Amino acid sequence: MRTRSPFILAAILLALPVLLLSACWQRGCKTPAEAKARLAAAVAARDPARLWAALDLATQWSWMTILRAGRESYDITLSNLPEGQERERMIRRFTPAATSENAAELFAKSLAAEVWPSLAAQLAAAGDRAPVENAAGSEAEIVWPAGRLLFHKTSKPAFGWGFAGLASEAEGLRRVASGDLEALRTNAADYERAAARRVR
Fold first, then answer.
1. Residue 76 needs a FRET pair 20 to 30 A away by CA distance; which of 38, 108, 135, 157 works?
2. Are 28 and 154 in contact (CB under 8 A)?
3. pTM reported for the whole predicted model
């Protein structure tokens, strides 16, 4: 066993970079064309998990922020808001985030039914054309008179290319979720100060 162990260790060390690279590329695609193919496969299957994997990193990050903000907002609502209709409304609003295991699951819960036919129509309009990269190599698109398919490449090489067509919507939801959280934090602090004054 002692004579074999150096060879086994060497084999593992040689294989590790390959395994890590393979795992990393599952997060993004090496080329815009691969990103388009991943998007097309997700839309054909109407699979939210595959669509999540097809997204660019910025869109995924927005959903991660939405998840974190929603969870904290849910906790603050339960702990600080007085019972009543407003509290119940807020609980219902933040329950999807509070009950989601991760951002991909929250994204799947939040997908509107019309997303699928919309993306299918866009892919049909794009046809078999490959996305054209910009000079910086950070963005690629397929453009036609009525619209476009947009793909982004993150500055983090391991994450590669992803579909950026849902980025604006995700960013808008991120801002709303962050604003809700800040408002609830302020309200919670006000409730705590009021409670402290009553104790005195």
1. 108
2. yes
3. 0.80
